[in-house]
Amino acid sequence: MQEAYIVPPKPEVKAVTAIKLPKPIIFHDGRLVQKPTPIMALLIILWIPIGFILACLRIAAGSLLPMPIVYYAFWALGVRVIINGNPPPPVNKSDNKSGVLFICSHRTLLDPIFLSTALGRPIPAVTYSVSRLSEIISPIKTVRLNRDRALDASMIKKLLQEGDLAICPEGTTCREPFLLRFSALFAELTDEFVPVAMVNKMSMFHGTTARGWKGMDPFYFFMNPSPAYEVTFLNKLPYELTCRSGKSSHEVANYIQRVIAATLSYECTTFTRKDKYRALAGNDGTVVEKPKIKKGIMGC
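Structure tokens predicted for Phospholipid/glycerol acyltransferase domain-containing protein (300 residues):
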């Protein structure tokens, strides 16, 4: 059995301030944004049937409509999309140039979709792990990484030769105003980087989870009455700050992380994807593939 702790409505002891804690507590899980008071719990229960139907409509609009129209369809369905900065134009394939690698802060699985919505064109994305349901309903191409540096590097280079690409170097989502440590692999593969600062706003349900079924993440996000995504395109990284000018991949990754953090008024951390999953789920977040059973062979 696991121990459970209940905080009374009016505790006699004052809560310890964040400054006095031994280290910042930045991870939490669960779907509810607000404390489930009796009134809020009643509102959530009454809203769920309406919210689920609305979420299905929003997901259908994002999946079935042409990407240039999705922006307006989202606004018509109560999903606010705010675009800041100057998005780069699409790469002309006839020039044989490598595509732009969009480096996004990771708030939910929908980051690449709202990036594509802001650009008005579908941008493929590489992911560490995504549910089969999310792949089916996704309006953009998603490619799974193998967590093998050589294989992943080869795959990303190939995708960049075909056009623009989106990646979230944090490896996993983080709800709080922090950025997890960026993996430096992306910095070794191209010199065309555009940092993108992502912010989302939810009033009722969180669109992320570590221990729950990730296939429901898009539904929970779109079940909010009026969710919002703010996409801020930052300046393209100068070549003198890339690996081509002699910078190490870690220097490039850390610089981009600091630029995005400064834009969002966030704090950079040294926590990794594995650190987050160990704190929340007791594992390193690695998905173990089930052994494949050959057809025609029966087990006893």
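The chain has a mean pLDDT of 87.
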